Amino acid sequence: MGDFTVGDEDFLLDGRPVRLLSGALHYFRVHESQWGHRLAMLRAMGLNCVETYVPWNLHEPRPEGYEDVAALGRFLDAADAAGLWAIVRPGPYICAEWENGGLPHWLTGPLGRRARTGDPEYLAHVERWFGVLLPQVAERQIDRGGPVLMVQVENEYGSYGTDRGYLEHLAGLLRDRGITVPLFTSDGPEDHMLTGGSLPGVLATANFGSGAREGFEVLRRHQPSGPLMCMEFWCGWFDHWGAEHVVRDAEDAAATLREILECGASVNLYMAHGGTNFAGWSGANRAGELHVGALEPTATSYDYDAPIDEAGRPTEKFWRFREVLAAYQDDRTLPELPPPPAELTGSHAVRTDGWASLPDVLDVLGGAECEGPVPATFEEVGVDRGLVRYRVDVPAPRQPYALGVLGLRDVATVYVDGVRAGVLDTEDAALPEPVPGGAAVELWVESLGRVNYGPRGGEPKGITGGVLHERQYLHGVRARGLRLDAFSAPGVAKVPFAVAGSAGSKGAAGAAGSAGAVGLHRGAVDLPSAGASFAWLRLPGWGRGFVWVNGFCVGRYWGVGPQRGLYVPGAVLRAGGNEVWVLELAGAEGAGPVTLGA
Q: Beta strand pairing status for 21-25 and 16-18?
């Protein structure tokens, strides 16, 4: 056991000054079988601490329907076994380029802007959730023999609001639930952010990617004493679909790390190892200074141009950081690197043996259809990640008029009398051709990720306004959801697959069941052994959708890039036969064979 405290100038461990050299590694973005390797890589880089967020929505996808909350405790135990201290950032909001910033869709749907405030209904949910989560943090604090040194109050609240009473309530709640180690806040080094996000008596830390001396000067104006810490040193950045891959020069990043340490500060590398947004958990941003512009969905890869890449391998940035951090080791030596991850060799083609249309998949795996005078949102039909089919009939007799959607989030493929009529991908959009009276209209709407940062956080998905024919709302819209987590082995086994590539009606891409056609493709691939640590799954020429390997969802693919392959953890693979499902939602002609390998 130990006594970790915040001194006038330094962090103190049993009364002795200690500098925290931490790295962010999110347990939920790394397959559990690889935690040990990644934590050993942090130690080899020269770090003595690991930091992680906790995504509420991952662990409580439905109200009081908890799923593997104990994963956090297992990760903290793994950190302890690796010789690392730990910093925990439990939220309830985490940002993290994660779906809805970690807040459950079933919470923000009805509450809207009342989330992240002192609203009693919101706080009641937080108190219940923290009552489930925090015991495993409390029992692993350093004063009880565990690795946890500090716990964060909310997350970058100064970038969002000014409800100090809310932050004070959270700080008190953490104490009431057994957190005895120091609490902290973290915000950008700007006056309005530190004013909105910090609390008297709670250590304030700063987040930035450059300008360390200037950032700490601003922090010192708000906090004259106490240890300095950059809680998020942004040594890389994340990618958006359809944008260029983001990189940061290794020497430049190392120079900023050196500057932080020369200021006498502690540091947390964000990210030390980014990992992967499996199962469609990527968030999204809104463009523009006020974060109210076009949607910018985050890619599946969370490589982050980090010093340890998505596959767990050291990059040039790793070696430059290791050189800087070596000077701050107690004995000036660093551990050796663990054995490198083994990549699956060769390129193994996935043999497609079945295809099912989206309506057939929805009939088996979808939820109940609901009808109302206005379209139900994703939140109202219980869909977090996935899509919703909306159906509405245009009354007759009437002339053909433009058919449009108000408040669309995020993309809709529209069919009129069973024929694809267009794709709508802006919030207020209309089909290019008029729609006649008496037509049956279907709109298959996909969420590309809920906003995780800024004033549009928590916004609903689906058709949030209405369906218009000319200027008239069409009422009586029917909605049926298809959740990603409905794709399990028992569920998919009930889907009526036809032989892939069989003749059929023309759809989004060639004959029904051909490569790239809209629908669920089932395939298989034989692998020589199960010894690989990872593989890449590639879908050249395909449109947009999701992939599962042996029932494990490796995430969203999208032909717009910049990501060209999906990371598959080795623990998911097996020697011999492996089953692959591809849910294609956009459709693409000329799609190539799906492959698994190097």
A: unpaired
